[in-house]
Give the backbone structure.
Amino acid sequence: MAQSHTLNNTILFSLLFVLLSVTLVNAQEEEEIEETVEELELDVPFDAIIESTLKGKRTKFYGETRLNLNQISFSNWISGGASSLSGLFGVDYHADYSDRNGLVWNSNFILSVGASSIAGTKYNRKADDRLQIESLVGKQINPFWKFSGDVKFRTQLFPGYRFFTENGEEKRTRTTQFFAPAQLQSGVGFYYKKTEEFWINLSPMTARVIYVAKKFTRDIPDGTSYLGVDKGQNSKFFLGFSVNGYYKVQPMDNVTVENRFNFYSNYLNNFKNIDFEINTIVRLKVNEIISSTIDLHAIYDDDVLQKLQFKELFGMGILIEI
């Protein structure tokens, strides 16, 4: 319990430090933009001026499609090893809209699926399985801040299994499937966006619902839950405070680092316990098409699992950006 409390305090302190740093760094830039608007006497919202950097476009569609392949092969290799083949396909697309009345609408679609085949095993394994849709509507307050309302939906496409060996035979039992679990989150608050490379959304009133199939909760022991959902139920409701955002940096010409983060604290139960999700993608671009990727994904949600979930993917393949 002490370790969990220390972890939550560390996360909260780090988040406050980031917010304070961003405010100090951008204070001068905000003053310069306000002075520019006053000098030009433009009767348009700040957002229209910021979006003019898109060459006057009020809508923008951009994103990427990637395909990574990894293969290991052994033949008469004395030190041992198992041949394997894995593939990963993903898309990450954005659609942004803004107008001169200060209305902003940003949407994001993420799909990532992958599988691996290992010699000597009976079943293939999933390497990744994620479907995520986000949409945010904002109304201009000043150059960088907006009132906001956002919706986020996340689920998986294919069944998940627990693998085990019984009497020398490899077996599996299904633990998840499409829409089980599925998570729907919606909140209202304040949205800060400086550039396409950085934004943060603060939602002091955020509802979250987890959906599962009843067959997974029907036979569990009394007093237990399945992915946070109580016995015999197919959903559970949460109400809390949410902070989510995005940050992208380019430490070198051909290297980019993207960070997505989400923090959530439930008002209804154990408010001091902070759930979080952090996804960091490091991409090394070889040329216009070929790139290598390291994908690090960490999740902690004690309603679902009272352990840190961590996933790491590394591969090289084709990357197409638009």
